[in-house]
Amino acid sequence: MADVATKHPMEDEVKKTEASSLVGKLETDVEIKASADKFHHMFAGKPHHVSKASPGNIQGCDLHEGDWGTVGSIVFWNYVHDGEAKVAKERIEAVEPDKNLITFRVIEGDLMKEYKSFLLTIQVTPKPGGPGSIVHWHLEYEKISEEVAHPETLLQFCVEVSKEIDEHLLAEEEEVKTPETPSLVGKLETDVEIKASAEKFHHMFAGKPHHVSKASPGNIQGCDLHEGDWGQVGSIVFWNYVHDGEAKVAKERIEAVEPDKNLITFRVIDGDLMKEYKSFLLTIQVTPKLGGPGSIVHWHLEYEKISEEVAHPETLLQFCVEVSKEIDEHLLAEE
């Protein structure tokens, strides 16, 4: 790694080895106001949130193997570069939390059309004696031919993403400082790897939620249609379920359905959850795994508690994980 405090003119940033001009390195520093730890955590702990910070550049990041921020894990990016929608499948090569450093190796996707190898290292260093940090980007690569350009535009892309993540992190800090009751409002998310197809899993909630009780009878006792049609926005469904050892009910309105994204959102409008929460939304999105069977089920819970005494719904998120696994087993048994 180059010293992050060292600045390099752009023309000096392409470093060619004696062996071949196909091999190169590009580096740049970006000054940010956010802390080094928080910026590092965006890539190491929650890269699936980067799209919220930089939606024009990053459309999504899915976990394909392993765990977020763990060496050997595989992540899959959807991004826009040079005006084109692109993808990158990357393996995490190195993580050093004490140095706020993470390295990704591109193993598949658009970059592999032009490069034999491509590594991206992001290291964030606190500014000495003041707030803010320096984000050091280090790209190391081997082109497949002389005709391929050095990735200066990708380095600029990294700079833009860094600045937008910085703004996002600062905005989050401002929300925490507001005099309202932000600790009552919360979000919980998790991913569940399944073997079934994304379409079939999505259809269980969008097309036949009354069959979920067959898949997970210990958790879900039934789902009835009260208004509208299955899987239609505005329709009302009524769930009977067991959570934390107690029989409970939930009346929910379908807020959003996006079949092309295998996404559905339910808003709880009546039932046991409304005793503790002013609002409660559950979004389920299922994404096919790249290059292989199986899918990733992403659960997103968004809620506002009625008081500080109410716990964040971690046990309900675990309930969602259990139901997902049982639905997966049910779908595989049907095949």
From TrEMBL:
Can you give the residue ranges of the Bet v I/Major latex protein domain? 21-172, 183-334
Name by which UniProt lists this protein: Bet v I/Major latex protein
Q: Which Pfam families match?
A: Bet_v_1 (PF00407)
Q: Which GO terms describe its biological process?
A: defense response
Q: Which domain of life does the UniProt lineage start with?
A: Eukaryota
InterPro entries given in the database record: Bet_v_I/MLP, MLP-like_ligand-binding, START-like_dom_sf
